[in-house]
Request: fold
Amino acid sequence: MSVVPLVEFENLKVRFKGERTVHAINGLNLSLQPGEMLGLLGESGSGKSVTLKTLLRLLPPKRSELEGSVRVNGTDVMSLSGKALARHRGGEVSMIFQEPALALDPVYTVGEQIAETVMRHKGVSRVAAMDVALDMLTRVRIPSPERRLKTYPHEMSGGMRQRAMIALALSCRPKLLLADEPTTALDATVQIQILLLLRELQKEFGMGVIFVTHDIGVAVEVSDRIAVMYAGNLVESGTAAEVIKNPRHPYTKGLLAANLHGAVKGQRLDAIPGSPPALETAPDACSFADRCPQATNRCRSALPPVVDISGQHKVACVLETANV
Amino acid sequence: MSKTEASFGQTDRGGPHQPLIIAKDLKKHFPIRSGLLNRKTATVHAVDGISFEVQKGETLGIVGESGCGKSTTARLLIGLIELDDGSIIYDGDALGTDIKLKELRRGVQMVFQDSYASLNPRLTIVDSIAFGPKIHGHADPSGVARGLMGRVGLDPERFAERYPHELSGGQRQRVNIARALALSPRLVILDEAVSALDKSVEAQVLNLLNDLKEELGLTYVFISHDLNVVRYISDRVLVMYLGEVVEVGPADAIYAKQAHPYTASLFAAMPSMDPDNRTEEPPLAGDPPNPIDPPTGCRFHTRCRFAEDICSKTKPKLSVIGGSERHLAACHLQDTTSGHSQALKEVAE
Reply:
């Protein structure tokens, strides 16, 4: 394909220094096509939020060391600074968070917050920006949007606040939306509403979305493609169907079993033993080997190769080299 | 675990058919005070007249959205907050008249969601677990604690002298489970006990809970918002909405066919897990109403697509539905005499 990918990570490495060193991302290669919805799946500490933050350069500059390249629409994100970085944040790429109550400013009304962003990025008047804000609240299907423009975040319910945050994030029509567990804090019946809304808006605006979650069910519900992260790298990626119906990496298989979808009551769960590694040193072997029931000496002596299974399906596991 | 310490809370007094817990018409309203004089300005109807039983040896799952009163119910059962009204009967003995709170707590213990907040950061693991037995006068509290640590999969040699912050979330939750078991309780209330854990660790802890239940003959009340987990672990399921029970019954029956429209919506809101057959329509619009001012009649009528006049006027009673004596729901649709136009019709004999 000659299309420039919307996002391209090449051998990204992120290391946090401080009292102890953490190798958060270890050689990540990942790309996203324009208009694609990618589900980034992983447990806490797997590096999924750090991946998102590198795209907005939100990592603490003094404590983090980055290697490799990150490109959005062909632009090197690492080289941005000053005004170019400000334009990038919120204009090109925008982000929604798990806790809308913390992400929104409590002392401004929802309308003012959206309008401020629009004025800043589009250089329009306050009145015109308010019109955009009203339009956005309508698009995220907030009931009686005229009234909601003038309300403060604390006056809204959790689901409404999340809709308001989505409206804010999309108000400048970014090409890329980053969603960091946006439905984890919501109730089940509200979560599904927000997931379907994001799916619709993604089609309507034609934007690329990276949706970070720890919940496989949520990833399946929204994603075209799913990438599974473990200990700062991808272990498996492919279309949602490829990953869910034909999981190849032992970790992905374990996660699917732990979802309990279709688990039989009373039957022992096929739990992955142990817990994720601490990442104090950069991995020089398969990070999952210590928890893997099929691990061999080969797994512990070198990094696993990335094997193409079929179509877009890729797996980082030495077991797959024999099968291809 | 020491069987010699068998005392009040642990012995079976009521026989196998006496439910371990009977909760009758539990009510808890929290006042909201504001203004200069700190006057009561509103009331949160957290738990509003709920009744249920927990049989010996079963696992009762309680599900519902935030604000529905599931955690308040758990806290009422163990006396962490005071009842406004209603009664709790533990193995045939009424709390307050026949038995004291301290006696109840020997038989009923609880594990909370936040594994870190529920441990004292200044106590080592072994001291935390041994605390209960020490208070209740056990001869060798730290011996009990070390034994339990081994039982929940934490090597006492390695972990006994550590502090909570030196453990991972899964390990800390194992400590909380061990601590809950330290007085050999018969009922353990698990309030979102696995919700904060990563999926792979959650599966390990669920396996542990199943093993412990079998080995020690425990009874569980398992509170969760994750329907997959509740289905896996529960014998019976109780569904709550805004402080009331809307449906209760055997897990298999409820998962096969939901009688109450709210239960049905809750199940339909679960992610499909099938990329070729994703959810197209959200089952419910809007958020749950505020429990400060709950809707009249059936509390679900504001979000229910079957709602009619009767639903906003008359509160439906929790009554037996279908063939099973044990499956109950509170919905006018299930009552042939309710006057709802779509209600089930009397089956012609």
User: Anything to note?
Assistant: Residues 60 and 217 of chain A are 32 Å apart (CA to CA). The mean pLDDT of chain A is 92. Chain A has one domain: 7-107+152-323. The first strand of chain A starts at residue 7 and ends at 16.
